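thread: overnight batch results

M.L. [08:02]
morning all. the overnight job finished for the chain we discussed friday. pasting input first so we're all looking at the same thing
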Amino acid sequence: MLKKTVLAAAVLGLAATGVQANDISGYATYSVGHGISSKPKAAKEVQSFYKEFGGNTTTDRASAGYKIVMGLNVHPYLALEAQYTDLGKTNYKGSFAANDGAGSSLGFSDKLNLKTSGLGGNIVGKYPIQNFTIFAKAGYHLMRTKGTLKTNGAISVAGFSDSFSASDSKTLRKWTPAVGIGAAYDMTPELSIVAEYERYQGVANKKINIDGDKLSFKHNVDFTSVGLRYSF
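M.L. [08:03]
and the structure it wrote out:
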């Protein structure tokens, strides 16, 4: 709590200094991007179970996403931003199937889906070079990650068959630090193209119980984006 209070005071102090020395201008940015997540321990444990039994696993850690940014230029070299970010979703799957060739079969699968989005703020340091501006940012974001585990199974033995399915969802909220770098090119005084790379560190840094196991969902997300910025 103390760290958050100190950070907020520092941001307000910088903003006040900028307001006194410069005219404030603003901007709005909409960007689309591509996120790549590291694999959380929960996904590793689900897939390792299937590998032990000779099953198959698939991983999809890349996803499309987007973000909306409202910014204030409080100094020629400093801006403050409020941001909504959708980092997309990732999928991890494990499956196992067996058939004895005499009519008996067994199959089951698990699919873990993670979807992350949230709100936050950034402090941006920037350096203009003619029509270009290069910048670096640091931020803090309250990210909401919804984790869903879907289980399916079927068995057929000696004329008897049965199937089952189950789904368990949990929602995790976690304050997540982020850093980024990027560049903007001014096509007109009002309209710019922006390209950025950001790293969201320790998303969903919690352990929760799913199917009786306490699993960690902590992971990082690298997000690369390009967008349009309107200055006003």
